[in-house]
Amino acid sequence: MQSIVKASVFSLAVLFIAAGCSQRTVTRVSPDQQIDLSGRWNDTDSKLVAEEMIRDVLNRPWREDFSRAKNAKPVVIVGLVTNKSHEHIESETFIMDIEREFINSGMVRVVQNSVFREKMREERADQQEFASPETQKKWGAELGADFMLFGTINSIVDSYNKEKVVLYKVDLELANLQTNEKVWIGDKEIKKFIRN
Length: 196
Prior knowledge:
By secondary structure, the chain is α/β, with parallel strands linked by helices. 41% of the residues lie in helices and 28% in strands. It is built from five helices and five strands, in the order H-H-H-E-H-E-H-E-E-E. The chain has a five-stranded mixed β-sheet with strand order 2-1-3-4-5, with helices on one face. Strand 1, helix 4 and strand 2 (109-111) form a beta-alpha-beta unit. Helix 2 packs across helix 4 (91-105).
């Protein structure tokens, strides 16, 4: 009798393992393909907002005004984008999407933020001791930013029973680092209806 019970338990365990293995499938998809599973903020939202807002900021008067006055492309630094929404959002990913759109436009120059600047300075300091003189990078040759972009991600949630509406609102501002003047303010909203 005991051996029959053991055999049954073993068989059930095998069946559970087999069932678990047979339910999961993995398929490679294009990184540009839009896939919404949970309804939360995702990579598609991040890219769409970054593309639209950077397209807007680059086509406002501040850029041409600066280029005309200085005869040069403006240098921009992307600062802090604070997540004040109800869910965890990797703001670093959104910041990278913004930087990519800026750089790929060819209309502005982009410099590293404070975190990466410190890393690069550490590397430069290391070079002063260990790199050959002809390959050492000099101090005091960094490109100073003319403008700084920063902003917030907010959300409003309304739910009832198994239905939910989420409104994401991204606000970005661009300010002149010399004068503190705000030269552009933009916002982008994404509204999602989720039914479970």
